[in-house]
Amino acid sequence: MYRDIATKLVNAIQDGQFETKLPTEAQLMERFHASRNTIRKAIDLVYQQGLLRRVQGSGYYITNIQLRHKTVVNLSARSLYNSNLHPRDLESQVLTFDTVKSNTTFSRQYGIPTDEELYRVTRLRYWHDQLYCLEKAYYLRSVVPYLSPEAVNSSIWDFLSEAYGIGVANSDDYLSLARLTKEEALLMDLEEGATYMALDSANYYKNNGLLNFSHTIFVYPDLALYFHTTNLANN
């Protein structure tokens, strides 16, 4: 339950419902009909994502990670029940939605059988009417038997949470500078060989089972990355 509450808190922060600080624990207990211990565990999850700062005796304040006019991708927010990597109100243009079989490259890289059936989703995603990224993602049908067209056009992660009760428990993320292939350049109407930031992700649900993997190329101008690191060692 505390993971669901943490996700709702993150969404509320992203939507601007809490502009300065979180409500008190008592107010959150009433809001979510949860115990103090559950609320504290949920707040701790959100804190671990770098979205809050704790002020002794005053409460939890919202961390302003926006850097001037830049769009910030919070790569720390990857372990909540849903994936919170992208802004919540992206619009999608679906280019491909079909099923394919895993190839030898996927099998070697992700440890899945070569005949594993996958949903393949290729989308152009837009932020404020401007191209944000090209995303090519694959979802294991052994984990996700059905993926609706409505979800592909909006939020796949919300669908997975509501339909199957699953989300990202942990992930492996690899950032690189990648040159656009001819196909990628054509899809985005950009110059072949141009260099952009790329993110390759493998997302896992409970018990470290592979849920999906993806390749995303970010082309939005003035994009910034945010990482939050917590030192658990005693000083």
CATH class categorisation of the largest domain: Alpha Beta
SSE order, as H and E?
HHHEEEEHEEHHEHEEE
Tell me what portion of residues adopts beta-strand conformation.
25-35%
**What structural class do you assign from the helix and strand content?**
alpha+beta
Total DSSP helices: 7
Low-confidence stretches: none
From the spread of the alpha carbons, the general shape counts as: globular
Strands across the major sheet, in which order?
Answer: 4-5-6-9-8-7
Counting structural domains, the number is: 2
Distance between the termini: 33 Å
At CATH level 2, the architecture of the largest domain is: 3-Layer(aba) Sandwich
Query: Helix content range of the residues, please?
Result: 25-40%
* CATH superfamily annotation of the largest domain: Chorismate lyase-like
Query: What is CATH's topology name of the largest domain?
Result: Chorismate lyase
Average of the residue pLDDT scores: 86
Give a brief outline of the structure.
Residues 1-65 form the HTH gntR-type domain. Keywords: DNA-binding, Transcription, Transcription regulation. The chain has helices at 2-14, 25-32, 36-48, 104-110, 149-153, 156-164, 182-188; strands spanning 52-55, 59-62, 71-74, 91-101, 117-127, 130-140, 170-179, 195-204, 210-218, 223-226.
Task: Name the features.
Chorismate lyase, Arc Repressor Mutant, subunit A, 26% helix, six-stranded antiparallel beta sheet, alpha+beta, 235 residues, two-stranded antiparallel sheet
Notes on the protein architecture:
By secondary structure, this protein is an alpha+beta fold. The chain folds into two domains: 2-62, Winged helix-like DNA-binding domain superfamily/Winged helix DNA-binding domain (Arc Repressor Mutant, subunit A, Orthogonal Bundle); 71-226, 3-Layer(aba) Sandwich (Chorismate lyase), CATH 3.40.1410.10. It is built from seven helices and ten strands. It has a six-stranded antiparallel sheet. It has a two-stranded antiparallel sheet with strand order 1-2. α1 crosses α3 and α2 (25-32) crosses α3 (36-48). It starts with a helix and ends in a 9-residue tail after the last strand.
